[in-house]
Amino acid sequence: MLSQLQLTGRDRSHLIEWRPGHWLQPEVAQAMEHMSQAAHHAGIDLQPVSTYRDCQRQLAIWNSKWLGQRPILDINSRPLDINQLSEQQKLLAILTWSALPGASRHHWGTDLDVYDADAVNNCPEKFQLIPQEYAQGGPCHNLACWLDNNAQHFGFFRPYQHYSGGVAAEPWHLSHKACAQKMQSQLSLATLQQCIEELDILGKEAILANLPEIYRRFIQLDTEANHP
User: Fold this and answer.
1) GO MF annotations for this entry (predicted)?
2) Of 63, 122, 137, 190, most Cβ neighbours within 10 A?
3) In terms of pTM, does the model score above 0.90?
């Protein structure tokens, strides 16, 4: 049983440093080591883009988007004019691509973003971590196909493989099913509400007013439905 601070990304004492700067739960790190080796034998250089991300880092991303210092995108990756959005529309738009601080799956040490490092390094275009790079013709398409067939054998699934009205499609996002299910079951609406109330987060009033919908639509996932 994790503490509220661990569940909401404010304490990483339950994690180990899997690779330099990349923290995961021990069971997840071991599974990733095995999967990386298998991918290597298949000619794929499976590497992390990001693993654990603490609450303060997620908060900085959120606040900069709320202020318009970072672009807010629609579901088709097109920039939105935040001046034309109500507070509720703005927070839902941000949540399409960025998790609510305190509620990111990256807080748990069970989830990570991955790419094919060799393929990206040999690609002349700048890597942006967008769905097109994992589609046919993209540098990480072979990786995406390999994950389709193999991720589940190592205990992983992709919670955002398809857009279903909440978070946008993220074919690069892996989640260790057994460990993530435990975290998700422990992150209650009350725990999240307390975290938001304690954070210096922009749009707090709108977030708290819409928190039950946010919790249902963007946080509570049916892992069986998303499992390959």
Assistant:
1) peptidase activity
2) 63
3) yes
